[in-house]
Amino acid sequence: MGNCSSFTLPKGGSKLLNNGMVSIDEDGTHEGIKTIPIQKACEFTTNSVLCVCIITWNMNSKMSVEDVTKLVSSNRKFDLLVVGLQEAPKSDVSQVLQEALAETHVLLDQKSMQSLQMLLFGSRSSEKYIREMKVDKHAVGGCGGIIGRKKGAVAMYINFSGIRMVFVSCHLAAHEHKVEKRNSEFQHISQSLFSKYGTPYAQSADITVWFGDLNYRLEGISSIPARKMIEENRQSKLRGKDQLLQEAEKGEVFNGYCEGTLSFKPTYKYDVGSSIYDTSSKIRVPSWTDRILFKVGHSSGLDAVLSSYESLDCVRSSDHKPVKAHLCLRVRSDGDAD
């Protein structure tokens, strides 16, 4: 668990390290999404550590108290928990999470836009470290023809003991062929969030985390061959067909962001109540629609370790599996080696 009071941000940039810690060079010259290894445990030895758990889940408008509780396991070695929900039901998911976390964490803030929700929890002593907090939302593409399932994003900016963080939880356009629409929505959201404050959000953050149902699909493979590869635990062979990675490589979206290795099975689409891929007449191609990406600011002075990136297969009340990441941040000291 972090010792928040010890944070003091140094001046100057940092760089991409080859030991699993991530930050970005001063010139910010990344192309596409950088896939980074998972450190099984946060290896920082100083107390200057802030650990953040991020969860994204498309709930398919269904409420299961048991499954919501499964999102937050008994192992809660994080200072902040950020939960982004898409197609959330009208039931009070916030209340269920607050009750599940009551012994260790409290709700700091929440933001919603129809079925899009974001909830921010902190350890019980964390409120005193909040220096500033802002929330925003931005809709794209209307309601998609379904009332209560508006696409777009909700976002939070928080200055937590000197660390300026932006969290963006989004739901982008569906269907395999809507790649350009998803790209356009990402750009539009990026340019619009927090614009009323006069400063683009990405320019004022030490770290930005984007997550949600991004809806990018596997392309160039049919459902049966894809499922066979997944059954044989060869899903790594499918990463080259992932639209999000392809579009980022072209420079269309998420340039300079980092993501953990996609070692878990594609998170969509499942038969509700099971871990069996779609058996309807559409037999949709399994895809990694649900993602968590992050970007460390050029001159933040921060190092980051991604100690887990996984899906929760045990959650079965939706046609999507939740995805969870555990991100630890450390302020670089002047004595850190280049």
Describe what this molecule looks like in 3D.
GO terms for molecular function: phosphatidylinositol-3,4,5-trisphosphate 5-phosphatase activity; phosphatidylinositol-3,5-bisphosphate 5-phosphatase activity; phosphatidylinositol-4,5-bisphosphate 5-phosphatase activity. This is Inositol polyphosphate-related phosphatase domain-containing protein. It comes from Miscanthus lutarioriparius. Belongs to the inositol polyphosphate 5-phosphatase family. The protein is an alpha+beta fold and 338 residues long. It has a single domain, classed as 4-Layer Sandwich (Deoxyribonuclease I, Chain A), CATH 3.60.10. 13% of the residues lie in helices and 31% in strands. It contains five helices and 14 strands. The radius of gyration is 19 Å and the shape is globular. The two termini are 26 Å apart.
In short:
Residues 48-336 form the Inositol polyphosphate-related phosphatase domain. The chain has 338 residues and is of the alpha+beta class.
Please name the CATH topology: Deoxyribonuclease I, Chain A
Q: Which strand order do you get reading across the main beta sheet?
A: 1-13-14-3-4-6-5
Mean pLDDT: 87
How widely separated are the two ends? 26 Å
CATH class bucket: Alpha Beta
What name goes with the CATH superfamily?
A: Endonuclease/exonuclease/phosphatase
Give the SSE string: EEEHEHEEEEEHEHHEEEE
> Which radius of gyration do the C-alpha atoms yield?
19 Å
| Unreliable stretches | 10-28
By CATH, the architecture is named 4-Layer Sandwich
Helix content: 10-25%
How many distinct folded domains?
A: 1
Largest sheet: 7 strands, mixed
* Strand tally: 14
Kindly name the structural category: alpha+beta
